[in-house]
Amino acid sequence: MSSVTLAAGLFEPYGFEFFRNGTIVAVTAGALCGLLGVFVVLRGMSYIGHGLSHAVFGGAAASAVMNFNYFVGAGLWGIVSGVLIGRIARRRILGADAAIGVVTTASFAVGLALLNRYGQAKRSIEAVLFGSVLGVKTGDIIAVIVVGLLALGIIVVGYRRFLFSTFDPEVASVSGVRVSMMEAALMVMLSLTILVTMRVIGTLLISALLVIPAATARMLTNRFARMLWISPLIGGAGAFIGMNLAYHTNTSAAAMIIIVCATAFSGVYFASGVRGKRRVAALGHL
Amino acid sequence: MILKAAPDNLLVSCHHLSCAYGDNVVVNDVTFNVERGEFVGIVGPSGSGKTTLLRAVLGMVKPVHGEVGTMKGVRLGYVPQVESVDWNFPVTVLEVMVMTRPQRGVWARITVAERRAANDMLDRLGLGGLGDRHIRELSGGQQQRVFVARALFHEPDILVLDEPTSGVDVRTRHEVLHLLADLHQDGISVLLTTHDLNGLAAHLPRLVCLNREVIADGSPREVLVPDVLERLYGAPMHVLEHGGMPVVLDHAEGAVIKPFRPRAV
């Protein structure tokens, strides 16, 4: 293959509107999830992101079956799930992880049953789990970009308060930071992100993008501020590369994006492991 | 206790304060005040309610009875126990300090003035040059002092420390004690909890002895006496004098926490 045809082959997918739209949404969603993922990973709430995205699936299914507006239905369902998780966890008999496990799997199961009984189950379920980049509408692009800019703005303006209440919530609270408000803001941003990206990139990919880019960025830097731009960069780049690979290998876009991100994670993990060992070895010579 | 102080000088006030977790009363009918310029230690065995009392003062625990609070406008510099945070968290020493200040404008960038002030504070606490280090690279004693530096950087009226010498070696304990004494000299009020009678409590001007209730309140000479200590630890203890200071012989091994008995009405 000559270089001209290779280049033409690489640019080929961009001739399709569905691919261009899908790529825009995937890259924005990757960056957005990467940004929020920093807080998710540092607060040890990876499971919340995972759970919330599965819980919202129930709402999405219910609204599809009842011919209800997706955003309203899934949004309300998400809020109810969040409140339930909070209620159960506050009893202190169960930990938050158990509460999330109960509420989100139940919610997911209800969605599944509804789709089985009333929907075109197979297609819809696959679409929710893995997303459908083919079906991206202009409204989806606008929604993802608006939420992305909103989250970016809120995090920039509230940077120190978010950092303080993530690093040391007790002292932050004593020092006059309204920690519960910052936490609520994070949860709202997280829910909105899941809401606007789920139809496009799917539940599974959201969970992955909320954890893998931030975890990779954490291994690359010891600075919070740097993590905040490295993680979205990894998420966005992973989404971009994954989309293109998926087109050329004719595989699921969501699966490819996760594989690309996970490969980056593994690369950094082993590289930093080697560097860490060297440092330890160097200490041995002192 | 009669409120002698003018309200201006009153920083912390507990009035018949009781706190409980469920049915378990951990602080019962505690009344004490801290005035501006004081250096007060709350002492007692573990499980005696020291930390709960401190958390109530900080507003983190709601009382079930009585009142507790800081006076309006009082700025608190809270120094929790070192283990309370994840030291692998990706921040530098400077960032830990600066996050206590509200950010001016849209960007959270550390300003030149903030950097200078933070570095001055680090110099003062013997942490000069460590500002750009990741917090995990510090020793235990340095981590403790970073917490003190952070609290001071918040420009507090009163420094509130939870067990500042727990889990540190003798040298660090000395450093912390001297540091607190210096800060007190400079006019900062201090309230701390400790179970370390000889290493820390005996050096403080005023002790509040707590075992669910206030057993005694006064100078070490007044309260570190066998009678009080027996009620505090539930076991007889001996007190010697060394260099003009009371030294408690540690028989606390067999100490038991005094069971709570509701008062007859």
Strand content bin of chain B: 25-35%
CATH superfamily of chain A: ABC transporter involved in vitamin B12 uptake, BtuC
What's the oligomerization state? heterodimer
List the uncertain runs of chain B.
Answer: 1-5
Specify the CATH architecture of chain B.
3-Layer(aba) Sandwich
Secondary structure: helix percent of chain A: over 70%
Q: What is the class of chain A in the CATH system?
A: Mainly Alpha
Q: Can you tell me the CATH architecture of chain A?
A: Orthogonal Bundle
Give the fraction of residues assigned to helices of chain B: 25-40%
> Tell me, what is the CATH class of chain B?
Alpha Beta
Fill in the CATH topology of chain A.
Answer: ABC transporter involved in vitamin B12 uptake, BtuC
Name the chain pair with the biggest interface and residue counts per chain: A-B, 23 and 30 residues
What is the overall number of helices of chain B?
7
What is the structure about, briefly put?
The complex is a heterodimer of chains A (286) and B (265). Chain A is mainly alpha-helical and 286 residues long. Chain A has helices at 3-11, 17-42, 46-65, 70-90, 96-118, 121-130, 138-157, 159-167, 169-174, 179-220, 224-249, 253-284.
